[in-house]
Amino acid sequence: MNEKLQDWLILLRAPTLGAVTAHRLLQQHDYDLTRALNSSDAELSRLGIKPQALEFFANNDQSLIEPDLRWAEQPGHHIIPCTHPDYPQRLRQLPQAPLLLYVRGDPEFLNQPQLAMVGSRNPTAAGARTATDFATYLSRAGITITSGLARGIDAACHKGALHGVAGTIALVAHGLDIVYPAAHKKLAAEIAADGAVVSEMPVGTEPNRGLFPRRNRIISGMTMGTLVVEAALKSGSLITAKHALEQGREIFAIPGSIHNPLSRGCHQLIRQGAKLVETADDILEELAHAFPARTDSKISQKPDKDSTLSTPALDPDHQKLLKCLQFEPAAIDELVESSGFSAAEIASMLLIMELEGSVVCDNGRYTRIA
């Protein structure tokens, strides 16, 4: 198996050799890697493999793949070729499927029913809370949440999913010997313990701006659909949604205020045919046919981490203030005018309601979320 893995790593490291050409080569030999690599230079050239790759195969420099092999020897580390049973079945169907996946965590999660959740790196407080709540609810329903470990919505989705039972998968655009952003080191460890951190990039690959859009095709490709929570018109989240459309996956979007620039990307997707989502049940109804009950999965046996949580009822004054707040951000002085309460009374109530999870504060303006 180690020799076979070395062959896969040599194929992956070959310069100028893209995934489409590599799959063409493998298909010619029924995905028998040894036969493929022993092809003549003439045959390899006919398949579009360039001289730089031919020279690389001839030299067979094993030192280049030693970091990958050392990394794979550590507990919980896996390198999974596209022919392996643990490789995600949905992803394998794509013409640009990665040859290998590097996995830190449990590979079993890769073939669980998944939903991609993506959005802004700088979301509103309400958007982040919505992402967390949706991810928790969907994870409790048996859907593994897949996202990109970025700041903002991605992190909120991962954290929410970790409160459920179905875990979460983080797709990153660099080698798994690195955690990026560094502030998410603890989160990455939690994901690896209750899901998986995944990359197509070899060990030692640094984060690079050009690698993130490429990574997004895997996020959408592994999943049944993509949910965009908050996104500006020019956003990496819309790239993920574009990949999902091209891959024949479902696209969902949560609408927002017309005054919020982070709602415009979602509104554009809805105009283009994405399914408008108001509750997590809207997603479950659309995807119910696509995944079986998890009666035979060890994941379904995990206890719900927050099953004892409940939401306390609001007292009458809090209910009145909540009605005045509606769902648009408002400052305390605006609420004084609409509610009749004093600024001190409102500040006290808002603090309690924020702790209860009924409202969130973003730059001094409060938004109702329940």
Structure overview:
With 370 residues, this protein is an alpha/beta fold. The chain has 3 domains: 1-68, no CATH class; 107-301, Rossmann fold, CATH 3.40.50.450; 316-368, Winged helix-like DNA-binding domain superfamily/Winged helix DNA-binding domain (Arc Repressor Mutant, subunit A). 42% of the residues lie in helices and 13% in strands. It contains 17 helices and 11 strands. The strands form 2 sheets. The chain has a 9-stranded mixed β-sheet with strand order 1-2-6-5-4-3-7-8-9, sandwiched between helices. Helix 13 links the parallel strand 8 and strand 9. Helix 8 (125-140) runs parallel beside helix 9 and helix 11 packs across helix 12 (236-246). The radius of gyration is 23 Å and the shape is elongated. The relative contact order is 0.10. Residues 293-301 and 307-312 have low confidence and may be disordered.
List the helices and strands and how they pair.
Layout (H helix, E strand, L loop, with lengths): L1 H12 L5 H10 L4 H5 L3 H6 L4 H9 L6 H7 L4 E5 L7 H4 L7 E6 L8 E5 L6 H16 L3 E4 L5 H9 L6 E4 L13 H9 L1 E5 L11 H11 L3 E4 L7 H11 L3 E4 L10 H8 L3 E2 L3 H8 L28 H10 L6 H8 L3 H14 L2 E4 L2 E4 L2
Parallel strand pairs: 3-4, 3-7, 4-5, 5-6, 7-8, 8-9
Antiparallel strand pairs: 1-2, 2-6, 10-11
Largest beta-sheet characterization: 9 strands, mixed
Oligomeric composition of the shown chains: single chain
CATH third-tier fold name of the largest domain: Rossmann fold
**Widest sheet, order of strands:** 1-2-6-5-4-3-7-8-9
Show unreliable segments: 293-301, 307-312
Strand fraction equals 5-15%
Mean pLDDT over all positions: 88
CATH class assignment of the largest domain: Alpha Beta
Q: In angstroms, what is the radius of gyration?
A: 23 Å
**What does the overall shape look like?**
elongated
Number of H/I helices:
17
Total domain units: 3
Q: Give me the CATH architecture of the largest domain, please.
A: 3-Layer(aba) Sandwich
What's the helical proportion of residues? 40-55%
Report the end-to-end length measured between terminal Cα atoms: 53 Å
Class from helix and strand fractions: alpha/beta
Question: How would you spell out the order of helices and strands?
Answer: HHHHHHEHEEHEHEHEHEHEHEHHHHEE
